[in-house]
Amino acid sequence: MKKLLKLFWIFFKIGAFTFGGGYAMIPLIEREMVEKQKWISGDEIIDMFAVAESVPGAIAINTSTFIGYKVAGFWGAIVAMFGVALPSFLIITIIAAVFSQFQDLPLVKAAFEGIRAAVVALITVSGIKIAKSAIKNKIAMLITLVAFVLLVFVDVHAIVLIILGAIAGLLMSWHAAKAGRESV
Amino acid sequence: MIYIKLLLTFFKIGLFSFGGGYAMIPMIEREIVEANGWIDSKEFVDIIAISEMTPGPIAVNSATYVGYKAAGLFGGLFATVGVILPSLILILIISHFFFKFKEHPKVKSIFNGIRPVIAGLIFGAAVFVAETSIFNGELSSLLSSKFNPLQYINWTSLLIFGATFFCLWKYKWHPILVIALSGTVGVILFYLGLVN
Question: What is the pLDDT of residues B139-175, one digit of tens each?
Fold first, then answer.
């Protein structure tokens, strides 16, 4: 019980103080779990981060749930998950309640007019970073282009695009394996 | 039964969101702006900006915000639980065969195909946000014969985009700083009337 409370408090703190989403949490989680509490080894936690990133869902939520499970089983997972999500829930609820009273003021509108242009830049920069690591060959570049065009101009649902990407990945490896066999 | 609908909608969003925050934007926009009309697209972009300035993942923040807008405190609660529930279920399943999962060749090749899609989704998200600021209307109107680039582009916003892109890319400024400054520039240009 004491461990669960501690787990909850650690993830609540991490949730309350990390700006910029999942990736920003990684060093904090590592310090708490590996160095301070010594609940998980350094090698283990790196593998856990890799899995948490490759499973669907917000990286912050996945990582916390996984580590909570590892440290204290099912209830550990529950406690860590709610601990890390609770600060955003509280803060955003307050903002949702308050912001709607201010959002139509001309001053606020003007500020967000500027901010929206900056958000385009933030997203573009992150897209370029992801593209650099994801696009390793011409086929991958083609997949990115086709996904973009289908999304923006044809309005295809993102879920459909992700499933098509998974199929394309399987076809590519099947093709590579076949080519490999033939060349032998 | 708006609570159940919020729960299910955000469960679906949580279940199919690969690649974190920005890659989810097209899907969240489709579900909450286009399909259900819970908020409009400008307000959704404002949530993205607010998410950037407050702690926590964009997915959770937009779930809480949209749920609250659609159905008050409990709406926020149901939407938030909906978006985090798939993580719990998937993690509990996967932790049983954790080490095999990541190295499995089929899993690897699936991700080799999904990752480039994620990049496409993020660029799509940038276009969607641009359609609420830099562009007047949807980018697909490019294909229409009446398309007029001079009227289509909001040049002031384009300038802010160019400057912030430069600061982020070249000088690696912190997102919160960039947002605070662009908000200030927005007030100067659009509120104090330096630009119409």
Answer: 877 777 777 777 788 888 999 999 999 998 999 887 7
**Residue B68 near residue A29, CB atoms below 8 Å:** no
Question: pLDDT above 90 covers what percent of chain A?
Answer: 36
How does pLDDT run across A127-149, given as a tens digit for each residue?
Answer: 898 888 888 899 999 999 999 99
**ipTM exceeding 0.90, yes/no:** no
Rounded to a whole number of angstroms, the distance from the CA of A35 to the nearest CA of chain B is 23
Contacts of A123 in chain B (CB under 8 A): 22, 25, 122, 125-126, 129
Last residue of a domain, one of A102, A125, A154: A102
Among A18, A77, A173, the residue with its CB nearest the CB of B92 is A77
**pLDDT at residue number B100:** 62
- Cα separations (Å) of A154 from A149, A161, B63, B108, B140? 7, 12, 26, 29, 8
Is A84 in the same domain as A29? yes
Residue A160 belongs to domain spanning: 135-184
Q: Which one-letter DSSP state was computed for residue B139?
A: G
* Cα-based distances in Å from B75 to A4, A96, B50: 28, 12, 19
**Residue A84 and residue A11 share a domain:** yes
B contact residues 112-131, partner A, Cβ 8 Å cutoff: 112-127, 129-130
The three-class DSSP label of residue A184 is coil
Q: How far is CA B88 from CA A27, A53, B142, in A?
A: 22, 14, 42
- What's the token pair of residue A55? 């499973």
pTM: 0.79
In this structure, the answer to whether residues A6 and A97 fall within a common structural domain is yes
Question: For chain A, how many structural domains are there in total?
Answer: 3
With CB atoms and an 8 Å threshold, state whether A170 touches B27.
Answer: no
Residues A172 and A144 in one domain: yes
Crossing angle between the packed helical segments A106-134 and B155-170, to the nearest 10 degrees: 50
Q: Which amino acid is at B100?
A: K
Q: Are B160 and A183 in contact (CB under 8 A)?
A: no
B17 contacts A57 by C-beta, under 8 angstroms: yes
